[in-house]
Design brief:
single chain, 130 residues, mainly alpha, Arc Repressor Mutant, subunit A, two-stranded antiparallel sheet, DNA-binding transcription factor activity
Length: 130
Protein backbone atom coordinates (compact mmCIF):
# COMPACT_ATOMS: atom_id res chain seq x y z
CA UNK A 1 0.00 0.00 0.00
CA UNK A 2 1.29 3.42 -0.92
CA UNK A 3 0.72 5.41 2.24
CA UNK A 4 1.10 8.85 0.59
CA UNK A 5 2.05 10.13 4.03
CA UNK A 6 4.73 12.79 4.04
CA UNK A 7 6.75 14.16 6.90
CA UNK A 8 7.68 17.81 6.65
CA UNK A 9 10.98 18.72 8.24
CA UNK A 10 9.84 22.35 8.38
CA UNK A 11 6.68 21.47 10.32
CA UNK A 12 7.17 22.27 14.01
CA UNK A 13 4.78 19.50 15.08
CA UNK A 14 6.23 16.17 16.22
CA UNK A 15 6.52 13.61 13.42
CA UNK A 16 4.15 11.15 15.10
CA UNK A 17 1.50 13.88 15.20
CA UNK A 18 1.96 14.59 11.48
CA UNK A 19 1.31 10.89 10.85
CA UNK A 20 -1.76 10.87 13.12
CA UNK A 21 -3.26 13.90 11.39
CA UNK A 22 -2.60 12.58 7.90
CA UNK A 23 -4.17 9.21 8.71
CA UNK A 24 -7.21 11.01 10.20
CA UNK A 25 -7.46 13.16 7.05
CA UNK A 26 -7.42 10.11 4.76
CA UNK A 27 -10.15 8.46 6.80
CA UNK A 28 -12.25 11.64 7.00
CA UNK A 29 -11.97 12.18 3.25
CA UNK A 30 -13.08 8.62 2.57
CA UNK A 31 -9.81 7.66 0.91
CA UNK A 32 -9.30 5.02 3.57
CA UNK A 33 -12.74 3.52 4.33
CA UNK A 34 -13.51 1.24 7.26
CA UNK A 35 -11.60 -2.01 7.07
CA UNK A 36 -8.72 -0.58 5.04
CA UNK A 37 -5.43 -2.09 6.12
CA UNK A 38 -2.83 0.48 7.11
CA UNK A 39 0.80 0.00 6.13
CA UNK A 40 2.71 -2.03 8.68
CA UNK A 41 4.64 -0.02 11.22
CA UNK A 42 7.95 -1.14 9.75
CA UNK A 43 6.88 -0.52 6.15
CA UNK A 44 5.58 2.97 6.89
CA UNK A 45 8.67 3.84 8.94
CA UNK A 46 10.90 2.78 6.03
CA UNK A 47 8.67 4.56 3.49
CA UNK A 48 8.77 7.94 5.22
CA UNK A 49 12.24 7.63 6.76
CA UNK A 50 11.28 7.81 10.41
CA UNK A 51 11.90 5.43 13.28
CA UNK A 52 9.63 2.50 14.00
CA UNK A 53 9.02 4.06 17.42
CA UNK A 54 7.59 7.20 15.78
CA UNK A 55 5.07 5.24 13.70
CA UNK A 56 4.23 2.99 16.64
CA UNK A 57 3.45 6.08 18.77
CA UNK A 58 1.15 7.41 16.02
CA UNK A 59 -0.66 4.09 15.68
CA UNK A 60 -1.05 3.77 19.47
CA UNK A 61 -2.65 7.24 19.61
CA UNK A 62 -5.01 6.37 16.73
CA UNK A 63 -5.88 3.10 18.46
CA UNK A 64 -6.56 4.88 21.76
CA UNK A 65 -8.95 7.20 19.89
CA UNK A 66 -10.69 4.20 18.34
CA UNK A 67 -9.86 5.38 14.82
CA UNK A 68 -7.91 2.23 13.98
CA UNK A 69 -7.85 -1.27 15.37
CA UNK A 70 -4.83 -3.55 15.53
CA UNK A 71 -5.28 -7.29 15.25
CA UNK A 72 -2.34 -9.20 16.63
CA UNK A 73 -0.47 -10.88 13.80
CA UNK A 74 -2.68 -9.35 11.10
CA UNK A 75 -2.00 -5.62 11.14
CA UNK A 76 -3.79 -2.34 11.74
CA UNK A 77 -7.08 -1.43 10.06
CA UNK A 78 -9.41 1.55 9.86
CA UNK A 79 -12.09 0.99 12.49
CA UNK A 80 -15.68 0.43 11.50
CA UNK A 81 -17.47 3.67 10.73
CA UNK A 82 -20.94 3.02 12.12
CA UNK A 83 -22.86 5.88 13.68
CA UNK A 84 -21.13 7.14 16.80
CA UNK A 85 -17.81 5.48 15.94
CA UNK A 86 -14.61 7.57 16.01
CA UNK A 87 -14.26 7.21 12.23
CA UNK A 88 -17.84 8.45 11.82
CA UNK A 89 -17.10 11.38 14.11
CA UNK A 90 -14.10 12.28 11.95
CA UNK A 91 -16.33 12.30 8.88
CA UNK A 92 -18.90 14.40 10.74
CA UNK A 93 -16.28 16.97 11.72
CA UNK A 94 -15.06 17.11 8.11
CA UNK A 95 -18.65 17.67 6.94
CA UNK A 96 -19.10 20.45 9.51
CA UNK A 97 -15.92 22.16 8.25
CA UNK A 98 -17.21 22.08 4.66
CA UNK A 99 -20.65 23.32 5.67
CA UNK A 100 -19.12 26.24 7.61
CA UNK A 101 -17.00 27.08 4.56
CA UNK A 102 -20.08 26.91 2.30
CA UNK A 103 -22.02 29.17 4.70
CA UNK A 104 -19.15 31.67 4.74
CA UNK A 105 -18.95 31.74 0.93
CA UNK A 106 -22.73 32.15 0.80
CA UNK A 107 -22.48 35.17 3.15
CA UNK A 108 -19.70 36.66 1.01
CA UNK A 109 -21.88 36.26 -2.08
CA UNK A 110 -24.88 37.72 -0.29
CA UNK A 111 -27.01 34.64 -0.96
CA UNK A 112 -30.11 34.17 1.19
CA UNK A 113 -30.11 31.04 3.32
CA UNK A 114 -32.96 29.61 1.22
CA UNK A 115 -30.76 29.64 -1.86
CA UNK A 116 -27.91 27.98 0.04
CA UNK A 117 -30.32 25.24 1.21
CA UNK A 118 -31.65 24.80 -2.33
CA UNK A 119 -28.11 24.41 -3.63
CA UNK A 120 -27.33 21.88 -0.89
CA UNK A 121 -30.42 19.86 -1.82
CA UNK A 122 -29.38 19.96 -5.46
CA UNK A 123 -25.87 18.81 -4.51
CA UNK A 124 -27.34 15.82 -2.63
CA UNK A 125 -29.08 14.51 -5.73
CA UNK A 126 -27.24 11.91 -7.77
CA UNK A 127 -25.42 13.45 -10.72
CA UNK A 128 -27.49 13.64 -13.86
CA UNK A 129 -30.83 13.96 -12.02
CA UNK A 130 -32.82 17.13 -11.51
Amino acid sequence: MNSSIHISQTDARPMYLQIVEQVRARIASGNWPAGTELPSIRALAADINVSVITVKRAYLDLEAEGVIVTRHGKGSFVAESGKGSPASELLGRKLDEHLRAAAEISRQLGLPSEELLARLRAAQRPRGTK
